[in-house]
Amino acid sequence: MRDLVLEIPADDRPVYLRLAQAVREAIRKGFAQPGEAIPSTRSLARAAGVHRHTVMAALDELVAEGWLSARPGQAYRVEPDLPDPYFRPATKPAARSAPKPQGAFPFRIVRSSSRPAPEQPLLPYRFQGGLPDLRLFPADEFRSHVADMLRTGFESHLTYGDVAGFTPFLRTLGTYLRRLRGLHAPHLLVTHGSQEAAFLVGQLLISPGDVVAVEALGYPPTWNALAAAGAHLVGLAVDEAGLVPEDFARLCSRRRVRLLCLTPLHQYPTTVTLPVARRMEIYRIAQKHGVPILEDDYDHEYHYRCQPLPPLASEDPQGLVLYVSTFSKVLYPAARVGFMAVPQGLFKPLSELKRFVSRQNDSLIQGALARWMEEGGFSRHLRRMRRTYAERLDALVAVLEEARASGVDLSWRTPDGGMALWLKIPWDAERAAAAARASGVLVHPEPLYQLRPGAGRHLRLGFANLTPAEIRAGMKRLLAACARLPASRQ
Amino acid sequence: MRDLVLEIPADDRPVYLRLAQAVREAIRKGFAQPGEAIPSTRSLARAAGVHRHTVMAALDELVAEGWLSARPGQAYRVEPDLPDPYFRPATKPAARSAPKPQGAFPFRIVRSSSRPAPEQPLLPYRFQGGLPDLRLFPADEFRSHVADMLRTGFESHLTYGDVAGFTPFLRTLGTYLRRLRGLHAPHLLVTHGSQEAAFLVGQLLISPGDVVAVEALGYPPTWNALAAAGAHLVGLAVDEAGLVPEDFARLCSRRRVRLLCLTPLHQYPTTVTLPVARRMEIYRIAQKHGVPILEDDYDHEYHYRCQPLPPLASEDPQGLVLYVSTFSKVLYPAARVGFMAVPQGLFKPLSELKRFVSRQNDSLIQGALARWMEEGGFSRHLRRMRRTYAERLDALVAVLEEARASGVDLSWRTPDGGMALWLKIPWDAERAAAAARASGVLVHPEPLYQLRPGAGRHLRLGFANLTPAEIRAGMKRLLAACARLPASRQ
């Protein structure tokens, strides 16, 4: 048997079907001879980073198709009578050191546990969570700061610089975090969005197979970053107050947990705020079991009803918290200015990794942002946006209340902050999203945020990038489109 | 024995000393009890990603210090009589699932094979290779293009976009590569500098222990990116015509080589151009053994004497070449606009990886660069710089000829292009660089570029960021500082 190289296609089909395709291709390329046993479901599960049941589903698919045969209690084998047109093994199985076939070379699995990016078609009404309204971005103002950076001192500013970030920006950022988030962060590292931060944490902390606890309703891009390091993701329950501490404690008592990923402020995707008692309990459990916490504070600035709770990282006597945040929601998403604040001992290895991964961030944008923050424009913009988004949230809630009054079975908890509302609907979420889409409305259904995608009855309604009028018109279309759907029995 | 966690410091000391320190710390933390055998040199070598000889050197150091004892033919053991003040094991070795000590958690090795970044002190004369002269950067012109991006359409341009790059930039880049480099590149991926490109290639193609062939005199940041994926780097000889094909063929016949890293145009650091016959031979060997080639074409634009040879990727019938390049040398280094052109089958998995690592590049800079290229400013700037850098190279050569005429034993081949000259001197390169530094001159010595750092008699003299007058003054200082050194006997 030759080395098994699985090339799992990354598309929208269920994982088991894509895995089946990869194994089928491997058989076609002759990694095992007819009649030969293939590796155990356990080792395939490990190699592909999926659950064993998924592997079994994939192999059963191949049995049904006639590629494999299975007998109770025995290994799956390549079907001995595989018809020749389907099966052309290499004339002789190549030894490990033998030349590869010309023009083709195998590559590592892009982990099949990775989640495809949800489509973002340019529909008239896009209730897209996490997207600021760039029509309101004061580009003139920001432009003048970029221009300043290109006017004075650019010879020394735009060259290779400190891996951790552009020094003047790091200084401004430190002050900002202390004043506005109560976070004393001496060890700051600027990253290409929060995505690179999560990726670096994965590379540093995770070895293949390590258990990483995540919110079972959570943020798939972080899962992807950690899965790329081989993390075995385990979902923890999320209820109407956020992550359930007991579930975390239970997992820690059973398994060695290498990392906990948490969105305490506006839980992603439900936007609930984790109450103080739960935060303390989660921290206590993490401390007891020595579990580092990746705290993702992705839209701290957008809190409407009151001051947002300071981050977990602001009170971290044990140095357990790796704090990750971003300016994508206030500046513009394409700016790629994320950052992390980490315990002292992790700063050096993380900067080293960053040096290998991308060397540094663009100092032009960091410098312009620093100037914008220093000059006060950033805060002014933020105040305006906070007021605007709060109005939009009110508009959305008003539409929902109206619909509920007219008999549609909707329920939600109006969030204290964030850029989206988590709405329970009387229909299957995926069918509702599909119906909405056909009516020109983009909305993302619950299964997109489930670690193990199943069914769901929630939609995530981003409200920040739509005006009140757009919200009303879009919701009207959405509800009209769904009215024709059967009620979900769940 | 507990799990061995090696925290190898990343500083300038030889690897074996840093490894020794890591093992010493692990013993101090009680990973093995007095009298207990430690893991084999082979497994330590694998874990640390270093040669077994390095491990043996590190362990012998610890034997000399009294931490370990060694008997011929037996495993190294923790010294049974280790004096207590030096050795405080955990009162009871912790089991794998036991809680970790509060506030501390182990992390993965940042591979000890990683090379520290050379220091770049702000000395008066900096012969720093690869650094463009930003004093000549037409910031006004570029500023107007950035401003344009922030003036029109920014609402749709500055949002989350295509992982592969900002569409208008990809289009412009495709045309540019076809016209100016003879490269038809339908599968382009924009990256954060060439660094991220090399990192992505490593993540996709390399499994721990895979042999990667590199130029033994080469570019350490690429080595770091590949070592981060666990590559076992093997150096191939470089002579006055570049990489020696026979050495590559020899390695391929002995080991399965997973990747070849090559800088064919201006070999890094020697800046020689690989002759066509050698290119063809190297390609033929790579094809025979199925070895993908990472072609790093880092300063294609700076060629003075003639048209530069088109990249290997421009004639790649077998789809073996992953072409990597960057705009850091024409735009500004901090811009982080690199890119890669890859064979069709690799585009999808590489974009997927990029999505996990950093999501996308900043579209503001890509868009501004695209406009600058479209409008012709980029070419105008390039023509100016080409003329300027050619003059600077001439100035450097004139100084060197003068010194040689006055009896200093210097030799070099004047490069056809690039931003540096590789100079052979009659002194030990590291001593020369230290002497120069004490005289206010920054220059990088040969060992910085050696895969296995030893001695050397070459300096890499970057000439692009200094005026002819600065070059003359700096070289005068450098030669005066070295005149006091003993001649190298090598």
Structure description:
Two copies of one chain form a homodimer. The first copy, chain A, is α/β, with parallel strands linked by helices and 490 residues long. Chain A is built from 15 helices and 17 strands. The first copy, chain A, has helices at residues 15-28, 41-48, 52-65, 139-149, 154-157, 167-181, 193-205, 220-227, 245-254, 276-289, 344-357, 363-375, 377-405, 429-438, 468-483; strands spanning 68-69, 77-78, 125-126, 188-192, 211-215, 232-236, 238-239, 242-243, 257-262, 293-296, 321-326, 337-341, 411-412, 420-424, 441-442, 444-445, 458-462. In chain A, strand 1 and strand 2 form a beta hairpin. The two termini of chain A are 47 Å apart. Chains A and B meet through helix 4, helix 5, helix 7, helix 8 and helix 10 of A and helix 4, helix 5, helix 7, helix 8 and helix 10 of B.
Stretches of chain A where pLDDT is under 50 for at least 5 consecutive residues are: 83-104
Mean pLDDT of chain A: 87
Strands in their spatial order, largest beta sheet of chain A: 4-12-11-10-9-5-6
Radius of gyration of chain A: 25 Å
Secondary structure: number of strands of chain A: 17
**Computed structural class of chain A:** alpha/beta
Biggest sheet layout of chain A: 7 strands, mixed
Greatest chain-chain interface? A-B, 88 and 88 residues
Query: What's the N-to-C terminus distance of chain A?
Result: 47 Å
Shape of chain A: globular
Oligomerization category of the chains in this entry:
homodimer
Task: Give the proportion of residues in helices of chain A.
Answer: 25-40%
- Our estimate of the beta-strand percent of chain A is 5-15%
Structure annotation, total helices of chain A: 15
